[in-house]
Amino acid sequence: MDPSDAELIQRTLNGDERAFDDLVARHRAPIFALVRKIVGRAGGDADDLTNTAFLKGYRGLTGFRPDAKLRPWLMKIASNTAIDWLRVQARIQAQIRRNEEGIAGKLASHVGGQKQLAHDVCRRSKDWVDKYLDSQRAAKLRQGALMRLLGKEYLRIAEECGYRTADSARLTIHSGIESAVLTRPGALEEACDIQAQYGRIAGLDRRVLFLNVLDVEILRNRREATHG
């Protein structure tokens, strides 16, 4: 007979990590279905958010009431996790729109369509993140990348995205974007074009980085030299 949830919880609290793995296997399907239903079209992030919910559950087991049912408790954690993520995403999107308007406003006195160019860079950068980071099912990575697009410091990103340190946020975001640039078909070419657009806004006297994270031109030159 399979052990009950209560037995697996007690074994987990006693240090048996495999017992919690058994709890995850037992309850993951309905938890994932709930999260996916809440996040809707952003369903590619449901897997990562489900993992986050179980991690929160693991950390909160010491406060779990022995007379309570585990699945409803986990469902509540998962629901809150997904709803909080949606709120953060909405706030980021609003910040991006405000940032886009701010950039365009500063360029309003320029000639040659610079205002529209600023709008295009913000829109294309966001679209790139949605397109090339989505399949990695990394909610934190996408959130951090969008925050870097807004010019947020890594310490702030670490606090809001749940990274342990600013350095951890920086390294994870940098490596995640670099991996997508180098492995996803078409990602490098699009990133280089966006960076070039950004450079035209900033002016030739200023070095710009794709998503304010890395210089994709260096990656393209390196790849061309390798395959040249």
Describe this structure in words.
This protein is mostly helical. It has two domains: 5-82, Rna Polymerase Sigma Factor, Chain: A (Orthogonal Bundle), CATH 1.10.1740; 109-227, no CATH class. It contains ten helices and no strands. The longest helix has 37 residues, at 70-106. Mean pLDDT is 82; it is low at 106-113.
- How much of the sequence lies in strands comes to under 5%
Give the topology string: H per helix, E per strand. Answer: HHHHHHHHHH
Q: Give the % helix.
A: over 70%
| Cα shape | elongated
Mean model confidence by pLDDT: 82
Query: Can you tell me the number of structural domains?
Result: 2
Number of strands: 0
Instruction: Please mark out the parts with pLDDT under 50 across 5 or more consecutive residues, or reply none.
Output: 106-113
| Rg over C-alpha atoms, rounded to the nearest angstrom | 21 Å
| Biggest pleated-sheet summary | none
- State the secondary-structure class: mainly alpha
Oligomer: single chain
The number of helical elements comes to 10
For the termini, the CA-CA separation is 63 Å
Task: Put the structure in a nutshell.
The protein has 228 residues and is mostly helical.
Task: Describe the secondary-structure layout.
Blueprint: H1 5-13, H2 17-39, H3 46-59, H4 70-106, H5 114-132, H6 139-149, H7 154-161, H8 166-183, H9 187-202, H10 216-227
Defining traits:
Rna Polymerase Sigma Factor, Chain: A, single chain, 10 helices, 73% helix, mainly alpha
